[in-house]
Write a structure and sequence with these properties.
By secondary structure, the protein is an alpha/beta fold. The protein contains 15 helices and 11 strands. Strands 2-5-8-1-9 form a 5-stranded parallel beta sheet. Strands 3-4 form a two-stranded antiparallel ribbon. Strands 6-7 form a two-stranded antiparallel ribbon. The mean pLDDT is about 85.
Length: about 325
């Protein structure tokens, strides 16, 4: 059983979370070389209890990163390869008719989504009907089949990958589906020295033993502690202002937002800004959430929640550029300055 969540969070609680992070990271680094920002963001989402969408070209260890984290966290892990013919029942499960003690009855057979970590590999290769099978699971941590609702194991994470270079036979994720992901991350090519180290480790007979560094109950406890970390009113107001300023119909929207943005961040944007900042502070062993914590998660939280228009495409301004400009345009609270 996990320890009781303290009514007030002390230094010893966040220090314990910092130590847990270091233990998990030590195991992950046995296999994953480089990609520091992506690893940090995925770790942040795990401790915050959010889902991740990871975009990158093939061969950059997206799947390996996620499976390695599953082994280091001692959580059940299932990989679903999304294809055009995949059906919702292939993900959530289905009912079958069985005979038991001379009686026939319907029994629910669990699908691969009944796992702590679900890797939705190449999620943009399956039709919207199947993509939507993840919606209830990601939001409510449960699935409903045949009128019966079944809870999913806790903790529960969906980490989806998509390939940005191929568009034939793909189905872009709807905005409503993307909004369920806490972070949208981009994984890029490693540096030359990192690639050399990758070659040395992957083209030899070296065996790497990943040992579990954190149990599911410990992770659930850490998530609850993180939600109890206080956030000063000026910091919370800064997060809300950042999200509100991304909406072109808001009176706080800068001129470049009104010109280039068609849809701004949803309410989940400000929620995940604060939750991600809480997790960043705890993982760093701090009780005080800062403006820098908000800014450090802003790109991953907001980039997929801001939809640019045709004028932005003509000017080659994407959502990443909008977020970076917003960080510069929205002033920090005076106490932070």
């Amino acid at each position: 059983m996990s320890a009781a969540v303290p009514a007030s969070v002390g230094k010893e609680h966040v220090q314990h979370i910092r130590d847990d992070r270091a233990s998990v990271l030590r195991e992950v680094r046995k296999i994953i070389i480089g990609q520091d920002d992506v690893v940090d963001d995925v770790m942040t989402s795990f401790f915050a209890g959010g889902h991740c969408l990871i975009t990158g070209v093939p061969g950059l260890a997206k799947t390996l990163l996620i499976s390695t984290l599953g082994r280091a966290l001692e959580l059940t892990f299932k990989r679903i390869q999304f294809t055009p013919d995949l059906m919702p029942s292939d993900i959530v499960g289905h009912e079958v008719l069985i005979e038991r003690d001379g009686r026939r009855e319907m029994t629910f057979v669990h699908g691969p989504i009944f796992s702590n970590i679900v890797l939705a590999d190449e999620i943009n290769r399956t039709p919207p009907k199947t993509q939507a099978a993840l919606l209830e699971a990601m939001q409510e941590h449960q699935v409903t089949v045949g009128g019966t609702t079944t809870p999913l194991p806790e903790p529960f994470f969906v980490l989806a990958t998509q390939n940005p270079i191929e568009h034939e036979g793909t189905y872009p994720l709807p905005i409503a589906q993307q909004d369920r992901f806490m972070f949208s991350l981009f994984i890029s090519y490693p540096k030359m020295d990192e690639e050399k180290e990758i070659l040395d480790t992957t083209t030899s007979n070296r065996f790497v033993d990943i040992r579990p560094a954190l149990h599911g109950e410990q992770l659930l406890h850490a998530q609850q502690v993180i939600r109890n970390i206080p956030v000063a009113t000026p910091i919370a107001r800064y997060a809300v202002t950042l999200a509100t300023s991304s909406r072109p119909n808001s009176e706080l929207a800068p001129a470049f937002v009104r010109e280039y943005v068609s849809i701004g961040a949803s309410l989940r944007g400000s929620q995940y800004l604060v939750l991600g900042a809480r997790a960043r502070a705890a993982l760093d062993g701090r009780l005080a959430v800062s403006v820098e914590d908000i800014r450090s998660v802003a790109l991953g939280v907001l980039r997929h929640r801001i939809v640019t228009n045709f004028k932005a495409a003509a000017a080659k301004v994407d959502s990443d550029e909008i977020v970076k400009r917003l960080i510069e345009a929205v002033p920090a609270p005076r106490a932070e300055l």
